[in-house]
Amino acid sequence: IAKNIGSVWAPSLDKVGNRYFLYVPAVSPNGNYVMWADSIDGPWSDPIDLHLPQYIDPCHYVAEDGSRWLFLNKGDRIRLAADGLSTVGEPEHVYDPWHYPDDWTIEGFSPEGPKLYRRGDYYYYISAVGGTAGPATSHMVIAARSRSVHGPWENCPHNPLVRTLDASKKWWSRGHASLVDGPDG
Predict the structure, then answer these.
(1) Smallest Cα–Cα separation from 149: which of 57, 92, 65?
(2) Model confidence band, residue 183 (pLDDT cutoffs 50, 70, 90)
(3) DSSP letters along 65-117, please?
(4) Which of 104, 120, 161, 166 has the fewest CB atoms within 10 Å around its CB?
(5) Calpha distance 166→7 (Å, rounded)
(6) Residue 131 CA neighbour count, 13 Å, CB half
């Protein structure tokens, strides 16, 4: 990024057709940007302001009907223009994340880091709750599924999928997660 847009947090890289898109949240000042390139090696465009100052952790996804969306923290999303370079309309709330028991030691609810996947007949919404900054037991990975990227979303009965149980564990604050297909599928 040649232009200073602030402190970059968790970006989303995607390829649609023959073009690459990088959706970049920044803080200080807060904003969300998109950059594009016809090659992963660049050159990349200058950041284009999407005018979404209250959101972090964007996840770009192309729906089954071809519409493009940017899923955001808080369980919200916003539609993108067909070229992926601007937003259409206002953000909408589409998912109520699973909530942990009240007696768990966490930082705060803080739903963030959405990632979407399609597998078989379902779309999967992987995200984090519990807070990034600690304590060690706060951040955790949760999942939901739906037959449409437009919802409704059904929380996994096994949530959280990943969580640090106490501060003596080697891995602390496990939250943001991605699914990866292994060699055996």
Answers:
(1) 65
(2) very high
(3) TS-EEEE-GGGEEEEE-TTSSSEEEEEEE--------TTS--S----EEEEEE
(4) 120
(5) 30
(6) 13
Could you tell me the two tokens for 36?
Answer: 């594009």
Report, in this order, helix, strand and coil percent for the chain, each rounded to 5: 0, 40, 60
pTM exceeding 0.90? yes
Q: Please tell me the number of Cα atoms within 13 Å of 178 on its side-chain side.
A: 9
Residue 125 to residue 161: CA distance in whole angstroms: 12
Rounded CA gap, 34 and 58, in Å? 10
Residues 6+ apart with CB under 8 A from 42: none
- DSSP state for residue 136 in the 8-state scheme: T
Pull the structure tokens for residue 78.
């916003």
